[in-house]
Amino acid sequence: MFNNNLLYEFKLLLRSSWLLILLISIVSLFAFATYNGKKNVEKRLYDISKMQMELNKKDSTMLATLTKIEKNEKVDVPYWQLPSEPMTIGFRHPRLAIMQPEALSFLATGQSDMYTHFKSPSIYGNNFALDYSEMINPVQLLFGNFDLAYVIIYILPLFIIAFTYNVLSKEKELGTLQLLSAQPISIITWILQKMAIRYMMFIAIVISSLLVIVAVFSLDVFSNPSNLLGLLLIVSGYVLFWFIVSYIVNIKINDSSRNALTLIGVWLMIVMVLPATINQIGSSLYPTPSRLKMINEIRLVKKENEKKQDEIMNSYLRNHPELAQESDKEKFGFWHKYFASEKVMEERTKPLLSEYDSQLQKQQNLISTFKYVSPAILMQQSLNNIAGTSEKHYNDYKKQVFEFSDEWRNYLVPMLFKGKKFTAKDYEEVPNFIYKNRIMNNVWFNILTIFVIGGLIFFVFAGKSLRTPYVGRSL
Amino acid sequence: MITTKNIIKKYGDFTAVNNLSFDVKAGEILCLLGANGAGKSTTINILLNFVNPTSGIAEINGFSVVENPIETKKDLTYIPENLMLYPILSAMENLDYFTKLSGNKFNASELKSFLNEAGLQEEAHENRVKTFSKGMRQKVGIALAIAKKSKVLLLDEPTSGLDPKSSNEFMELLAKMKNDGVAILMATHDLFRAKEISTHIGIMRSGSLENYSNSSNLSLKELETIYLDIMNFKNVSLK
């Protein structure tokens, strides 16, 4: 029966132009979404390269000045900007901490439009730690980005609904169900086969379109076959989930208009209502502290520190005698006092910063816990993960910048306290930031989860019907 | 071939079929007559396992339609009042699809011969069914019965809406099938056709079989009188 159904389902879908409509629509949507995603990534790469060029230019000038200083030639630079001073390097020539996009970053914009991808952690101040977000268009924020993740999560289910909502009810309305039911077959098996065949056709169109479009726009993706396979499998699982939902509605309701309405209701619930509700619960249970208030409090702490700088300096040197040994206390200037107070400052602001981060973390954890309620959330998380644009990736990038900032400071501060000059030779040894994607790829677990969710729903709602050979009431 | 014993079908308080018993043997045609709602179609639906009887036994070829529905449908063809096929498939493709569903496999020339035997003109074989008249679709149904070598044919008002010529052709096909040993149960309103084709006639009213006769023992006039009598139309008669 399966081969017969496969042959005639293919003929029916081909002649009714369904396959052509699906192919054209899916290819067009994928192409447009990939183009959009690539445009975002290209903008990101352009911004990064612009920053890199600026840094290179600045470094060349700085190195030229350094060489002149080392040759005791006259330089046309004010004394507070002399690159031979380690603090000038730390403050005026910070390194770039760049978060390069992944090969599949165009797949999901994720948090990439909310956060910056390059930071220059200066030796002075830690404002970089507070401001990682970028100004974005609020309208775009409201409707999201039209990227591949958007098409896969929001639009593909609508195609599946249109493609499958009346698989059984159409036979009833056409009158062919009577003749079918008079054949020595189980209608339940027959419709299950029809749905399986439609699933195979749909997924073949989706996967082949995805591979072709992705290959046209970026061949890099084939450099990471594991991620690409993960993407294809998670999409197959998500599509299967919607086919299962549609199958259940088909056999339980079996009236075209009611089927369509029910499926649209389920779509609304899964891709809109549930994610929005969970987000809302997250922000109500764990409200993010006011950023303005936090900055204000940090400023107050700073002001207090400034008043007590001498006291702080003494205490700092007591804790770091190695820095005091070779320095003349009388020569301690602004930078010495600044770094001494910076430690105190860090300790006092730590609870404020960690409260902010901890609330955000709690929100994220809540959403992660409830991701099993809506496969749309699971999909979004998986696609962001594959694309390297998840909240986790940006938090880790921030953490890596913090770590690098410490490295940068620890490299230069001892030079300051020891009264060492910065040389052209030192330039070759300055620490440089290299971003590492350290986030564990949980896409394989999510793939398994989505198939398990689909399987459970199938057996709970349709398992019993498999033992019933006929759908009598459908006639 | 077709056996019903004391079949009762109730929908709540309403009794659609009441204590119905009959047999249709190979080479026999039983025509069930009766007004709308008399229980003819419900009887056929029970034999097709589209609905379960409330009580009683319904068998096709010795198999219970409730316990072995798939087994009973192997030897059965059903032609409803308005046989619907896939409009964007040709007659050949529809026949191929449905014969394969019933577990048979035929090549193109065999399928053509079945359609020819059913009286569908050759030039229509490859045409899409959406261009077919009702009579032509009924012929595809008969071709399916021939292809399946069905031992049982269930017909629910198959000639209603057919023009006299198509109706005649259809009756000729039924007669041929009867002679080939097929057991046929036909629900109809057409007394004339029933008398002409059947071996037995049953008249149903309110779910009960009020009269069961051998058609060769009845004239059309007698059949009409009995029918009207059962239907309580005593003072009306056909001229």
- Domain unit count of chain B: 2
Termini of chain A, distance in Å?
21 Å
Q: State the domain count of chain A.
A: 2
**What characterizes the major β-sheet of chain B?**
6 strands, mixed
Number of helices of chain B: 8
Biggest interface, chains and residues, is:
A-B, 24 and 32 residues
The CATH superfamily label of the largest domain in chain B reads P-loop containing nucleotide triphosphate hydrolases
Tell me what portion of residues of chain A adopts beta-strand conformation.
Answer: under 5%
Q: What summary fits the major beta sheet of chain A?
A: 2 strands, antiparallel
Quote the average pLDDT of chain B.
88
**Nearest-angstrom radius of gyration of chain B?**
18 Å
Total DSSP helices of chain A? 18
| Oligomeric state of this protein | heterodimer
Low-pLDDT stretches of chain B are 234-239
Shape assignment of chain A: elongated
Strand order of the largest sheet of chain B: 6-7-8-3-9-10
Strand order in the largest sheet of chain A: 1-2
Annotation, overall tally of beta strands of chain A: 2
- End-to-end distance of chain B, in Å? 37 Å
Instruction: Report helical residue fraction of chain B.
Output: 25-40%
Q: Could you describe the 3D structure shown?
A:
- The complex is a heterodimer of chains A (475) and B (239).
- Chain A has 475 residues and is mainly alpha-helical.
- Chain A has 18 helices and two strands.
- Chain A has a two-stranded antiparallel ribbon.
- In chain A, helix 9 runs antiparallel to helix 15 (375-387) and helix 12 (309-319) crosses helix 14 (334-369).
- Residues 471-475 of chain A have low confidence and may be disordered.
- In chain B, the strands form two sheets. In chain B, strands 6-7-8-3-9-10 form a six-stranded mixed sheet, sandwiched between helices. A four-stranded antiparallel sheet of chain B has the order 2-1-4-5.
- Chain B folds into two domains: 1-75 and 151-239, Rossmann fold (3-Layer(aba) Sandwich); 88-150.
- With 239 residues, chain B is of the alpha/beta class.
- Chain B has helices spanning 40-47, 69-74, 91-101, 108-117, 134-148, 164-179, 191-197, 220-230; strands spanning 2-11, 14-24, 29-33, 55-60, 63-64, 76-79, 152-156, 183-188, 200-205, 208-214.
